[in-house]
Amino acid sequence: MLIPHLHFNGNCREAITFYEMAFGTRAEHIVYQRETSSESENDQIAHAVMTIHGQKVFLNDRFGKKEPSTDIAIHLILMFSSESEFLACYERMKENSITIDPLERLPYSSLAVQFIDQFGVQWGFMIEENPAG
Fold first, then answer.
1. Among 19, 21, 72, residue whose Cα is nearest residue 48
2. What span, in angstroms and rounded, lies between the C-alpha atoms of 69 and 120?
3. Are residues 24 and 56 in the same domain?
4. Are 94 and 125 a contacting pair, CB within 8 Å?
5. Residue partners of 66: CB distance under 8 A and separation at least 6
6. Are 11 and 55 found together in one domain?
7. Contact call for residues 77 and 26 (beta carbons, < 8 A)
8. What range defines the domain where residue 10 resides?
9. pLDDT single digits (tens) 54-83
10. How far apart (Å, rounded) are the C-alpha atoms in residues 24 and 45?
11. Are residues 84 and 108 in the same domain?
């Protein structure tokens, strides 16, 4: 099993809330760096699990080397079954994002976009095409 793992710079809690809203999902498991009887705004997330579009994803705040890179070597692709679902999700995610490739039709997808979200995660959204169609 291959599981994408997203690392954040101290704002993992905010990213989880954002992704829950954007993708209509909930974090299934959250472990805080400091175990306390009550959650504190300063507690960073050591490990969280969320399912996005049927794919398990791990999330955590980055501990250790914290130099962000603008050259992102990997990005996550979401395949949507409908244009309306695609556009609704993109509308929720595009605020404060950096567009890499704008909304466009491609030979292999009726609609596609590539962007970096407000947390520095690179996403590609596409419409799943029927190759026989």
1. 19
2. 9
3. yes
4. no
5. 9
6. yes
7. no
8. 5-61
9. 999 999 987 655 555 545 557 798 999 999
10. 21
11. yes
